[in-house]
Design goal:
Structural class: alpha+beta
Number of helices: 5
Largest sheet: 4 strands, antiparallel
Shape: rod-shaped
CATH architecture of the largest domain: 2-Layer Sandwich
CATH topology of the largest domain: Alpha-Beta Plaits
Helix content: 40-55%
Number of strands: 6
């Protein structure tokens, strides 16, 4: 609707503790978790900042890959020996031996899960992304940034609160090509 009313603020913090305090204070000012984005150069989990757990489809994609890998291993182990015109019979052994079958099933299940997990993380992180993104170079130096994109809050109140909570810089966010 009215895109001009959207507050777009980027605040840079020197450490993780003031960042977590700022997130908590922003919640008390009426900013929802969906409106805040944490930009960090190091991995930061949701509990470290007191944020709710984010939903991801990577476990489902990994399970699907494991099932496909298992089915591929079952095909190689149980179907391929019977595709020969004259099955190879060694003494009184079965055409499908037990121990090698277990190894093939395990390895192809793990291979399917590994490949699908990589693909799931790759797609879930929206990589590669060719559109302009909001970013601050200070994040590469170990700082933390909070990006607030919210339509229903006052910009002045948010800016003052972030400065009071220890932000090194508070400025309007600008999208730029990385």
């Amino acid at each position: 609707m009215a895109e001009s009313n959207v507050v777009d603020i980027l605040a840079v913090f020197p450490d993780l503790e003031p960042t977590a305090n700022a997130i908590e204070h922003l919640r008390s000012l009426g900013v929802h978790d969906e409106c805040m984005n944490i930009i960090s150069g190091v991995p930061v989990t949701e509990p470290m900042l007191g944020r709710p757990h984010q939903w991801t489809n990577v476990p489902r994609i990994a399970m699907g890959g494991a099932i496909l890998g298992f089915l591929g291993g079952a095909f190689l182990s149980f179907v391929v020996p019977y595709l020969y015109p004259y099955p190879i019979q060694v003494s009184s052994q079965y055409p499908v031996p037990g121990p090698p079958t277990v190894v093939v099933l395990f390895e192809l299940t793990m291979l399917g899960m590994l490949l699908s997990t990589f693909l799931g993380v790759f797609l879930d992180s929206y990589f590669p992304n060719y559109r302009p993104m909001k970013y601050v170079p200070e994040v590469s130096d170990g700082k933390y940034a909070i990006l607030v994109e919210c339509p229903h809050v006052e910009e002045k109140k948010i800016t003052d609160a972030l400065k009071k909570l220890g932000a090194e810089s508070v400025r309007p966010a600008e999208a730029q090509h990385l």
